[in-house]
Write a structure and sequence with these properties.
Blueprint: H1 8-14, E1 36-37, H2 45-55, E2 59-61, H3 71-80, E3 91-96, H4 110-116, E4 121-126, H5 146-158, E5 163-169, H6 173-182, E6 189-193, H7 201-210, E7 213-217, H8 236-245, H9 249-260, E8 264-265, H10 272-280, H11 289-296
Helix pairs in contact: 2-3, 2-10, 3-4, 6-7, 8-9
């Protein structure tokens, strides 16, 4: 198996010449820096993903959690887009629900493979380190620890060869330090909520230390759902920068996340023009030092509800 202490990126390079090489020669796609998020799209998931693939997105993020995601509609969208892009050219991420932390081997991923209409998933994450709140109130719970579950993820890579890469989501910095010491197959990705008001520098530092990718979700402020208007996209600093470059506030915060914080991003939209902007126009401007500092200064501030 890949050696302890090496990142999955390093392992993926050696896998091309060692005994762990997958039998499927098509499983060689690298992870893009921008993907398409599908949380909360509901019945519009299939059409939104098809539009995203037409626009040019080549990474789709989904999860087992039916509360927020429709894996089955993602699978249908990819299957119905075969004339646009082949499965091997779409980097698919799914996430193991915490109610399944105690499942073993293929039992952990089989439903996802069926839903996604595929024989492998490019990236499989543990969605949370544990059940908390009402996260596990729906469906059968197979209790287990995140360490037990991570060992099973490793088997999906090394033994069953149905996952190319693995990682975690919503793990705090202390758990990530434990993970680094514990893992035989190091994670490729740590996926965390991050926006200009909650940038999560501590987790980014851990990822940088170990060569892991920091993948941000809700970059556009989706976690501030209790506000009447989105405080990220309506912030005066963000809007001023947007006006200077004649772009949307969304492009400002995505540009900052990707090009300044060096995050992998997965913006979500139902609107084709917004999809095109996020993918094709994101790098059309470069933030200057003063603008970068003004955006960094927003970190940790609680936005006004006015």
């Amino acid at each position: 198996p890949p050696t302890k202490g090496k990142t999955e990126l390093e392992n993926s390079k050696t896998d091309e010449t060692n005994e762990n090489k997958t039998e499927d020669e098509s499983m060689t796609m690298t992870m893009p820096a921008i993907g398409f998020g599908t949380a909360g799209l509901g019945l519009e998931t299939k059409e939104s993903v098809k539009k995203a693939l037409q626009v040019g997105y080549r990474m789709i993020d989904t999860a087992q959690a039916p509360e927020w995601y429709r894996e089955d509609l993602v699978g249908l969208a990819i299957e119905e887009s075969i004339n646009v892009v082949k499965r091997k050219d779409v980097f698919v991420t799914t996430k193991i629900h915490p109610r399944h932390l105690g499942r073993k081997g293929m039992d952990m991923i089989e439903t996802s493979l069926t839903n996604l209409r595929t024989t492998y998933v490019d990236l499989v994450l543990l969605h949370y380190s544990e059940c908390w709140g009402n996260l596990c109130s729906r469906g059968e719970v197979v209790p287990g620890t995140w360490k037990e579950a991570y060992r099973e993820l490793e088997r999906l890579v090394v033994e069953f060869k149905v996952a190319r890469f693995i990682g975690v989501s919503n793990f705090n910095a202390n758990a990530l330090e434990e993970l680094h010491a514990f893992a035989n197959v190091q994670p490729l990705v740590v996926q965390m909520r991050s926006d200009v008001f909650a940038q999560d520098q501590r987790t980014m530092d851990v990822c940088a230390k170990y060569g892991w990718r920091f993948e941000a979700y809700s970059s556009l402020g989706g976690q501030w759902w209790q506000y009447k208007t989105n405080p990220v996209l309506n912030d005066d600093v963000v809007k001023k920068i947007a006006a200077r470059y004649n772009v949307s506030p969304a492009l400002v915060v995505l540009n900052y996340a990707k090009n300044v914080l060096h995050q992998t991003i997965i913006p979500r939209s139902r609107d084709r023009k917004h999809m095109e902007d996020s993918l094709l126009r994101l790098d059309s401007f470069e933030l200057d030092d003063e603008e970068i500092e003004s955006l960094k200064a927003l970190d940790g501030k609680v936005p006004s509800k006015d």
